[in-house]
């Protein structure tokens, strides 16, 4: 038995070493990615379904890895958070998105919101508002056109201090959206006090509207709650026309999802802006 335990221990420990090694390699190549500009952004339209106009774009991060190809954020954001690399990466995202938004405006396209995702670590930085102010100044983008997406769970990590940060950002003229709404645990009493502009209904609820009456009910409640609190509401993960129709019939106007467009490069967005969105 002793021997077997020993083997087990060795098995686990070598497995752990591989994990540690993998992490170190990933962290290392993430640092290099930032230096070598292997990161890039895709943009996904947010659509006013009454008019078919694009009212906003969400910037979504990608990593072009030299050996592994394009890596999606779910595979590396957590590690970027753990190592603190999310701070410079997040700053790069904000800067790139703001400059791109300004570029489209200068090309004469009607202005659209540029929505940028913020991680908990970024949000906990005291000088976040200063960093963002500097980026807005550098890029020349009017703060009205920047929207920050923050999850419920990020805010609820420290609701009082985070509410103060939200207020500071809002006072700068930036708009604020709660991302993945419905998946976290923010109480309604908090929600009322958050200085936010928009709720984004999580894809998880939207996806199953047609097959799960509970999800349909949750989505209806979120929409009417947003309206009661005078917040805008965006449904994410809208993949089909019936989903769009269900949401529209419940007075949800703004939607985002594969039905309208997948996340695409800035060049592809330019083409869409020139020709209009087809769905
Ligand atoms: P999210 O903020 O909830 O972003 C929406 C995700 O849903 C994106 O995944 C998008 O590609 C995907 N999506 C959009 N429409 C549809 C649809 O109709 N069907 C389906 N199945 N999926 C759809 P993506 O780009 O892989 O991003 C995943 C998550 O990574 C994001 O979730 C966000 O939390 C995070 N993320 C992305 N970019 C950044 C960033 O720059 N900074 C930070 N901190 N997090 C980011
Ligand atoms: Ca988001
Ligand atoms: Ca989301
Ligand atoms: Ca999500």
UniProtKB/TrEMBL annotation:
Source domain of life: Bacteria
Domain EAL: 23-277
Name of the protein: GGDEF domain-containing response regulator
Source organism phylogeny: Bacteria, Pseudomonadati, Thermodesulfobacteriota, Desulfuromonadia, Geobacterales
Interval of the full protein contained in this chain: 427 to 705 of 705
